[in-house]
Amino acid sequence: MKRCMKALALVAVVMVWAGQPSAEGSDYRFDLSPMVGGHIFEGNQNLDDGYTMGLALGYAINQRCTLEGGFTWISTETKKFDVDVDGQRYSLDALYHFMPEEALRPFVLIGAGALRLDPDVGDSETDFMAEYGAGLKYAIMDNLDLRAELRHVMPFDDFYNNLAWQLGISWRFGKREAAAEEEPMAVMDSDGDGVPDDVDACPNTPAGQVVDELGCPVVLDSDGDGVPDDMDVCPNTPAGQPVDELGCPVIADADGDGVEDSMDRCPDTPQGAVVDSRGCWVIQGLTFDTGETRIKSDFLPLLNEVVEILMTNPDVRVSIEGYTDSQGSDSANQRISEGRAKAVQEYFVSKGVAEGRLEYQGFGEENPVADNETEEGRKQNRRVELRPLQ
């Protein structure tokens, strides 16, 4: 009896273990297994080996574990007197399958039940029993397996060792419905900016506004001029181009002489200075006769305007630079150009401009501002320019 209790306790533990939840599912809930085979009795039982027919019904807890109830009919006879004996084996087993996804699936089993022997002559006998075993299943269809197994059957009252082998098929049925996929929770996005409300740091953004990963507005400035696209009246300005508050180009003119810095060959001219198209400070209208260095009285008002600018800007120092046209020799033109610059310098000093603020030099026929092939062009080249000194 103690052996019986130990075996039943072991079966209970296995059944509890087999019933634990598994991550794997089983396609079918049930299987029905008709089988035939043989039952080999221990020699001292005085019974010949018999043949068997059985039926088992299993419930698949998951792909690996099955609980199975079985009934097997045994036909045998006694060794002496040839008395026919009918036997019945009842069992409740736990099966564990290896490689459940494969076509060939080994399994082991353990269980308990009862073994009844009913001879034609004499009294019938029923013993509790325990059993364990192993087998193979091979899938020949989606829901149909070939099955073979061997069991060690152990009746308890008079402990015997019996072997039972069986061959048959297992028909699986009761297919499980596929688990419905859990529908994702609806994501709330009240302002429609694509960022869920639970992470949106800037709710209620206007429709169409581009936002970052926190739902806060992103300022777009496609041309990189520092003015947001939604305010940029002049998009696509070139890189580095200064613009106003509307994103439109602003002409950079650091010295305010009306000539853009990128084209100004004479930067830093003082306020009020008259410049030419190059941005250079010229005494507009002052010219000299050919070969002359004398300043005509008609041009003195022009020089007085420059004196006024110099007196207004006492920190400005200038270089007075004289030029000639292309007529005459280089040496003569150099001497004449220096004479024209010196005449202007002397006039400025006579009007109160400190001599230390003034330098003069001649450049001959260099740097013409007009075409020396025409009389008008040559006249414009006979000039004096002023260049601020740092």
From TrEMBL:
Chief place of localization: membrane
Highest taxon, organism lineage: Bacteria
Signal peptide positions on this chain: 1-23
InterPro entries: Bact_OuterMem_StrucFunc, Beta-barrel_OMP, OMP/PagP_B-barrel, OMP_bac, OmpA-like, OmpA-like_sf, Thrombospondin_3-like_rpt, TSP_type-3_rpt
GO cellular component: cell outer membrane; pore complex
Domain OmpA-like, first and last residues per copy: 275-390
Record flagged with keyword Translocase: no
Ranges for region Disordered: 363-390
The keyword Transmembrane appears for this protein: yes
Bilayer topology: Multi-pass membrane protein
CDD domains the record matches: OmpA_C-like
Gene Ontology molecular-function annotations: calcium ion binding; porin activity
Composition-biased stretches (Basic and acidic residues): 375-390
Subcellular localization(s) per the UniProt record: Cell outer membrane
PANTHER family noted in UniProt: LIPOPROTEIN YIAD-RELATED (PTHR30329:SF21), STATOR ELEMENT OF FLAGELLAR MOTOR COMPLEX (PTHR30329)
Designated name of the protein: Outer membrane protein beta-barrel
Species of provenance: Desulfoluna butyratoxydans
